[in-house]
Design brief:
It is an enzyme of class 2 (transferase). Keywords: ATP-binding, Kinase, Magnesium, Metal-binding, Mitochondrion, Nucleotide-binding, Serine/threonine-protein kinase, Transferase, Transit peptide. One of its GO terms (biological process) is positive regulation of mitochondrial fission. The protein is an alpha+beta fold. The strands form 4 sheets. The chain has a 5-stranded antiparallel beta sheet. Strands 6-7-8-10-9 form a 5-stranded antiparallel beta sheet. Strand 4 and strand 5 form a beta hairpin. The chain is globular. Bound molecules: adenosine-5'-triphosphate. Adenosine-5'-triphosphate binds next to strand 6, strand 7 and strand 8.
Length: 573
């Protein structure tokens, strides 16, 4: 029997799995179980299928009990068989038991007595091997421990330089170019201190005024020593938030480009009457990224798939901020940084520049005259752009909205709010039409986060789920997989009675987890590093209720009607 004779639903899923996940020998073993009679299918890349009888002794092998991953189509169940390499060896008579067999999570007793979703969440949320950002290291808190390279960017508040540890540079080899990310893997943000006048408590003042910058640094509260009373930095690192190593106050160096680029921030400036004997400023040491999103969109060609992956990562960053009540408040494309090794690779994305951040455990601000409401006026959400003092301003969904505007920039290369529209006055129907090649659920999610009224705005967790789910292998098939959704309205009660949908969620997550685990032993180009991390990030914040709500976006349904234009037309008639 060839694969062609297997039901089309199962075949499509099998092909998708097989075309993305192959083991080192180029084979992927799947068990496709017709409802009536089991058959075993060996898939090779290109989805050629050959049915083989799996030896009897192998089917008693406990490894096969790992078959927990099921995707139901109308007639067939497709089950990836445990660890692919292991099965391959067993299937072809190999004797060696691979080392990683013992570490397979499905053999371990679950940490909590919970379901698949919770176990997967636990695995992907806590293991370093799926989350590079969890790797810990300490960096020195003094400038003399580092070698400063060339300038890689500057803004109104800081200049950023390539950086490496002194110890990394003294290997006797020819001096490496500071343009080289490997030679200078760190970045130093030298904050502009415009107050070099002689005064007491210089250090306290610097930490207090510039401390918000450190919101992504989990140990910032310790460094700040209560200088900003209610400061609450993010509790942990996140793959889509700029990775900060440390921050310290040290003497201000006059670097070669300083007089040209930021003369007014130098202690030599004529405006000071009496200058500090040892002028100081705040330095932040970060991981160095390759370029800004703005430069990437301008200079690099990228596929729609890559751009969808960027939007999904951006939303993951926003979800993390939202869940920890931090508002970045300056979401623009030169504050989004990307890293990648080779051209054409899908970049990893981080949100950076927290100089305007609100990080005190609350999104609500008592807005008084003269108070700063964040960075760029054009990237402020409507409720912030329209706020007038005195009033209470709620920033909870401001970053989500700004990320929506950025997703237009990612998809169309043009942020409609930089030049064409104003966030204070735009009508939802005036937003640019997104490409037909973009999946409908993603388009609907963008519409949802661009809602003017924050009460109607889509929560970032749901939007992130929609962007991510549509990128995963089964994304295109979700509609087939959830027939129960096709005609019925989404009702809370439905969930109680529909254990079937819960099973689909379990199956979907199991497949995703299996694919992601397997992908670590497959060649890199099958699933990019950024996508693997995105999967881990998505799985580490799984929430059944949010998943349930997100699946509704994959129903066939009429486009969400946008408010504004129709009513205007009617009133005009
Ligand atoms: N970690 C990093 N790796 C590589 N480049 C970086 C990094 N951090 C910042 N940059 C570059 O430096 C530029 C300025 O950094 P940043 O936006 O943080 O400064 P700023 O003065 O706070 O900016 P703004 O004027 O927007 O407030 C960025 O646009 C980017 O090009």
């Amino acid at each position: 029997m060839s694969l062609n004779r297997i039901g089309t639903g199962a075949m499509r899923i099998a092909q998708q799995v097989a075309s993305r996940v192959v083991n080192h020998n180029g084979t992927w073993l799947l068990k496709i179980v017709p409802r009536i009679r089991p058959a075993h299918v060996l898939l090779t890349p290109g989805a050629q299928a050959v049915v083989r009888a799996i030896p009897r002794q192998l089917s008693r092998n406990p490894l096969l009990r790992m078959v927990q991953m099921t995707i139901r189509s109308s007639r067939y169940i497709v089950r990836p068989l445990s660890n692919i390499a292991m099965n391959h060896r067993a299937f072809f008579g190999g004797q060696d038991r691979p080392r990683y067999a013992r570490r397979q999570f499905l053999f371990k007793p679950p940490r909590h007595n919970q379901g698949i979703v919770e176990r997967v969440k636990d695995l992907f949320g806590t293991k370093e091997r799926y989350n590079e950002h969890l790797k810990k290291g300490t960096l020195p808190d003094r400038l003399s421990a580092y070698e400063i390279g060339g300038n890689i960017g500057y803004g109104c508040n800081a200049a950023v330089y390539a950086l490496r540890l002194q110890s990394d540079g003294v290997d006797g080899s020819a001096p490496a170019s500071d343009k080289d990310l490997k030679a200078y893997p760190l970045a130093l943000k030298l904050m502009f201190n415009y107050e070099h006048d002689r005064r007491s408590n210089v250090e306290d003042g610097l930490w207090r005024e510039m401390g918000a910058e450190l919101a992504p640094l989990p140990r910032a509260a310790k460094l700040l020593k209560g200088r900003i009373g209610d400061f609450r930095p993010l509790p942990s690192t996140h793959p889509n938030i700029v990775h900060m190593g440390t921050a310290f106050v040290d003497s201000m160096p006059i670097l070669p480009d300083a007089r040209l680029r930021y003369p007014e921030a130098l202690p030599t400036s004529v405006m000071y009457e009496a200058i500090e004997p040892d002028p100081k400023t705040l330095f932040v040491v970060m991981r160095r990224y390759r370029m800004t999103l703005q430069a990437y969109l301008r200079e690099q060609k990228s596929s729609l798939w890559a751009r969808r992956a960027l939007v999904a990562q951006l939303m993951e960053g926003v979800v993390f901020l939202y869940n920890h009540k931090v508002a970045q408040r300056d979401m623009k494309s030169d504050n989004i940084l990307l890293s990648y090794d080779t051209d054409g690779e899908i970049p990893q994305l981080v949100i950076s520049d927290f100089g305007c951040a609100l990080a005190n455990g609350s999104f609500v601000v008592d807005y008084k005259d003269g108070m700063c409401l964040g960075g760029n006026l054009r990237t402020r959400a409507p409720e912030i752009a329209l706020a007038r003092a005195p009033s209470v301003v709620d920033f909870s969904l401001a970053d989500t909205w700004a990320a929506g505007a950025l997703s237009y920039e990612i998809f169309t290369k043009l942020n409609p709010f930089y030049s064409v529209l104003s966030s204070a006055t735009y009508k939802e129907c005036e937003l640019p039409v997104l490409s037909d090649r973009l999946p409908e659920p993603s388009k609907r999610a963008v519409e949802g986060i661009m809602r003017r009224d924050p009460k109607e705005r889509l929560l970032p967790g749901i939007a992130a789920n929609v962007f991510s789910l549509s990128l995963f292998r089964f994304g295109a098939d979700l509609q087939d997989l959830i027939p129960a959704f096709a005609s019925e309205p989404l009702a809370k009660e439905m969930r109680k009675v529909s254990s079937r949908i819960e099973r689909i969620i379990d199956d979907m997550i199991s497949l995703l987890a299996a694919e992601t685990i397997s992908a670590r032993i497959t060649p890199r180009d099958l699933i990019s590093r950024a996508e693997l991390q995105l999967r881990a990030t998505f799985m580490s914040r799984l929430n059944r209720d949010e998943l349930w709500e997100s699946l509704a976006f994959f129903r066939e349904s009429p486009p969400v009607s946008s408010s504004g234009c129709e009513s205007d037309n009617e009133s005009a008639v």
